[in-house]
Task: structure prediction
Amino acid sequence: MRIDSDDLSRLAAEVIAEAPCSLEMPAGTGKTELLAACVATAAALGDRSLVLTHTNAGVDAIRKRLRRFGVSASAVRVETITSWAFTLSRSYPGIAGINVPEVPDWNSSREYVEGAVLVAKTNAVRSLHAVSFGYLFVDEYQDCTVDQHELVVQISEAVPGSVILGDRLQAIFGFDKKRPLMDWDTHVVRRYPSKNVPHLPQRWRNYNVALGQWLLDIRPSLVDGGHFDFSTTSVAGIEWRQCDFKNAVQVVNKAAYGLSRTGESTVLLDKLAQQVANHASRLGGSFAVMEDVAGRFMAAKLAELPEEKNALLALWLAQMAKSCFVGLAGLDATVQGRLEKGRTVSDLKRPGLLTVQAALDDLIANPVYEQLCMSAAAIRATSGLTLYRQEAWDDTIQAVGRGIVDETPPQESLAVVRDRLRHGGRGERRQIASRTLLVKGLEFDHVIIADVQNFTDPRQLYVALSRARKSVTVIGKSPILRLGYE
Result:
């Protein structure tokens, strides 16, 4: 059920020898392993590789796999497509035709890509790409927009040893109607001929091979307009749990608490960001919310941040804390009403929250950003509270603090703070609450789908199911889904 090291080496040698080519590989069938083997093979031949993918999580996973293969950092450059586009556009802003800031504003991703296409077309940059890299590998290609595809095409004109990897059933990034996804048959196969490779359930070989094989077997049934019935599934590792409106929370919580006690990695998935946050809150902070790289929740909170010398800073901090911590029910309407009027709150009896109340009073007395950061630190250190949106809280407060040092608005500073994910990745957490979009490319021992009625897009459903190595708990009102692209 696995490709041994000799077979993998031979396959990697075949792939780079046949480049330009494209490989379609389902989730968990060893795509990252093969990519790493190809880069290692290229390095052994004295060639340096450029590896592009879509997410920072994907970059982190590829870098870790390359280290396991002993690939020297000097033999490979791994970036997201957008970050490489940013680098090209910033290096040649005149050719790109845009003003590019020192720190990326990911809301301008399309502009970076379009500018990078112009840059990559020039003879000078083509020569630079040709001299710098012997091979180009682009992972998760099914998520490429037409403009990103054009950038890859321009780079591959200079680096003809190009290998495209992806899986059409995992195309879940196509939510921006202004940036349509490329078509695999039209854009990929014609330029990068298909190469067939073995599809074996590699991810599950030491965990639950039956689950992995089932995921391969059901792929033909996960189609637009099709139906899927979990009640007919008998494979080990797939558990269906019925719920209704009244007991949905209890069913989800019971499943999550049960798996968290195993000490193994678990991801709880739902469709919308607020649904994910609600699950984490109701689970008492035992599951941490994974935030999107752009930090939309944080940016929205900072957009509401009052200016210095405004006593409403204390109300803002109280509301921010309530959206990130469990244990702050005492910051109720009475407390917030006082803060809205610029009045202190320490005299109110709120068991266990005296430290928090004192921190808010300090901010009432001294409504400046420096004090806000100190009050936030005091709240974070308060015993009895559980921080379930750690990423959001820490980065938002850090953005305020960095803004003081850099003399920039906190919203601008947030981009600098979040940019660290491009380089360092996220810290590992064993229990995560997230949307499918953010965990694509990641693996967990267990997956909980909190409401399967939110996963009727076959691509979303497949990505959710295929994150698990050992088990998937599927919760919903009905086990029968009518599938359709969103």
